[in-house]
Design goal:
about 55% helix; 4 helices; two-stranded antiparallel sheet; globular; about 70 residues; kinase; mainly alpha
Length: about 70
């Protein structure tokens, strides 16, 4: 997963404004007790961070892959 995909998933699930608050303030056990922002800066895999956020925020499994994006063409 790319960092841009991480942010798309965060924004889709939590809204653009609140996703930044969560990334800055929510401490995630799944990435060594870092916040998402700190974990990204430390080089953790964005997918690992996203799944840690999902776990802490009880995001249903059905939404952990994000919303469907229609194909262009």
């Amino acid at each position: 997963m790319r960092v841009s995909e991480f942010w798309r998933l965060m924004d889709d699930e939590f809204s653009a404004g609140y996703s930044r608050v969560l990334a800055r303030d929510l401490v995630l056990k799944g990435v060594g007790g870092n916040t998402a922002a700190d974990a990204l800066g430390a080089g953790f895999d964005p997918r690992e961070i996203w799944l840690a956020v999902c776990e802490m925020q009880d995001v249903p499994f059905a939404r952990r892959l994000g919303r469907d994006i229609p194909l262009k063409g």
